[in-house]
Amino acid sequence: MRALAIERAQHGERLDRALALLLPEFSRSYLQQLIEAGALRLQGAVVTKPSQRVRAGDRLEIELRPTPQSQAFQPEDLPIPVVFEDEHLLVVDKPAGLVVHPAPGNWSGTLLNALLARHAGARNLPRAGIVHRLDKDTSGLMVVARTRAAMDRLVEMIAAREVARQYLALAHRPWQGADQRRVEAPIGRDPRNRLRMAVVDLQRHPGKTAATGVRLWQQAEAGCAVVCTLETGRTHQIRVHMAHIGHPLVGDVLYGGAVSAAVPRQALHAFRLAFAHPVTGAAHSFHAPLPPDLQPGWAAWGLRYNEPEWLTGQPAVVAHDGASRRGPARAPAPRR
């Protein structure tokens, strides 16, 4: 237990800010967690609101105990499917349901925890070498650095769009128009719902430019399967852009997608990752098969999944009648 007194300089400050000034050896985030957990007494009474204002002379008592966040960055022996690994980096095929980085509600059991257990050097790297993320319910390929040199170079490559990241998605409504289109629309926090992202007007709301290439893969009466290529890497980018053009992802209820008995989550899978090795310069291209939990969704719509087509980079466009052809040619309208 630590006893403190609010000084004249902190008069009128928020409780958490005043506490951070009095205890500079601890982060404000950590102190906020202690307050919210009931570990602080102000004038002898428990206070749980970090925003409460304090006055000069107020007496504080705080119990400096571990919080979930302070214990989050611990190694955990968790299974992670590794596609490729050398002394500089590894490529993992992240399963759906695995959180990438500790956050409220998921302070343990994350990919970061698994990386800390996998190799000792991860503790010396920011975010244990994680250079890009996938949502919890998105499956597929991620590259992770094992050295600082590889991490710095991978960050540069991603910013310069030198890392190819492609996703396969199952979306509502049959595709209309040209087989390929580029969605360029800025993304920011949804001003009406802070839990969501949205396409925003940058003159009115904060956000960042975002661009996604979308190509029809297969057509069905109920919807379509598409390949999405990231040009930028904004939070929920593909999900937001697909909803913006009228094709929300199956199972993605946050952005207007309907729940399907055949798809237990948002139907989004990072199936291809390609880049020049950040240290050796060698060309690498990795493919992750459509995971078993998503395959029934394709089957329910009568869509075909053929592994060799994934490896060519030029999938067949398949009409609802089962006819297929190579490349970006337009699929016939679905039969009624």
Q: Measured on Cα atoms, how large is the radius of gyration?
A: 24 Å
Shape label:
globular
Q: What is the β-strand count?
A: 17
Largest sheet, strands/sense/barrel:
9 strands, mixed
**Roughly how much helix do the residues carry, as a percent range?**
10-25%
Report the sheet-strand fraction: 25-35%
Q: Enumerate the spans where pLDDT stays under 50 for 5 or more consecutive residues.
A: 311-336
Number of helices: 7
Helix/strand-derived category reads alpha+beta
Helix-strand string: EHHEEEEEHEHEEEEEEHEEHHEE
Give the overall average pLDDT: 88
N- and C-termini, Cα separation: 72 Å
What does this structure look like?
The protein has helices at 15-22, 28-36, 111-118, 148-159, 237-244, 295-300, 307-312; strands spanning 2-5, 40-42, 45-46, 59-62, 82-85, 89-94, 139-145, 164-172, 180-184, 187-189, 197-199, 211-219, 223-230, 268-276, 283-287, 317-318, 324-325. The relative contact order is 0.11. A hairpin with a 3-residue loop joins strand 12 (211-219) and strand 13. Residues 311-336 have low confidence and may be disordered. Helix content is 17%, strand content 25%. Strands 5, 6, 7, 8, 9, 12, 13, 14 and 15 form a nine-stranded mixed beta sheet that branches. The termini are far apart. It is globular. Helix 1 crosses helix 2. The protein is of the alpha+beta class and 336 residues long.
